[in-house]
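Re: the request from the purification team.
They wanted to know what the chain is likely to look like in 3D before they choose a buffer screen. I agreed to run a prediction and write the result into the notebook, where they can find it.
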Amino acid sequence: MGAPATPSRIVIGAMIIKHMKKLSDEEVIEDIRENPYYQYFLGFEDFQYRTVFVPSLFVEIRKRLGIERIQKINELFLSKIDAQDDEYDPPEPGNSVSRNRNL
């Protein structure tokens, strides 16, 4: 019997972090180990001091899915990120609080 499977939420979340931050397999795993915000994003309730998984997991996923599927997933991630960036309209400086003088 082998090691238990890593939950898909963790794997997909790690892939999102990896591509958004443009990190190597090793770098994303180290960043996840050090960053409580990343760990929360991946679904952990408590801070994990140990490495969540090994870099070879990314290699195994790439082998299973193949280059075409990986590229399609990357395109979907990037299109969603671009769409969210287009929707975000930050407030102008000095206008972050609305002032209704009729109150």
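For the purification team: Residues 8-86 form one domain.
Please add any questions underneath this entry.
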